User: Fold this.
Amino acid sequence: MKYQAVIFDLFGTLVDIYYYEDYYSVQAEMISILKAPSDDFAKLWRDTADRRVTGVFRTLEENLEYICRELNVPATSSQINLAKRVRFDYVALALTPREGIIEVLSHLKSDGYKIGLVSNCSAEPPVIWRYTPFAPFFDLTVFSSVAGFQKPDPRIYHIAIEQLKVKPESCLYIGDGDSQELTGAAGVGMHPVLIRAAHEDSAHALRTNPEIDSWSGPRISSLQEVLDLVK
Assistant:
């Protein structure tokens, strides 16, 4: 067996990436519920992104309460909970599997590969994950908001390696290249592969520090190609 484990990114890999239009529509709905000044809320939401993704804000409520305090917005607990629900519903919908991915995971599982997830994300996906169709197939999930650090920090990859009990060179890493994740995976000895579906080559896709233009390693355009990589 060429590889012992396949480790996936989440957004842009197992599920579609966020798109600006949807993302900002949800943000606008939260702003409306909280009766917050739009531009100021948007700036603080953006400025607190790293704290969401690394678990400084342990819950979405903590993040929203912090922003409201900073803006002197007297939001009630009911408003906070309603804004939270809007965001949770959005993330839950975003965690819809891409076409064919469940079949790919099933093949990998039946062939004896260990399957892991390493994801930069806020507090919502770890809560929702257990209810998704993905959960039964994964031997390990490492969410940055739980781990306390995010890709491309080597520590987040080492958690996966150590808990899966495999060597990094036996790990195939599949990601869309957001947050310099492929370079990070290569740096710890994994074999990273860029996945980019044609419909996501769009200026409307919401990404942070993508490395698609600089990536010279292997690429695929669909998750079904993962099965060819592990042969």
Notes: The radius of gyration is 18 Å. Residues 5-16+97-229 form a domain with the Rossmann fold fold (CATH 3.40.50.1000). The first strand starts at residue 5 and ends at 8.
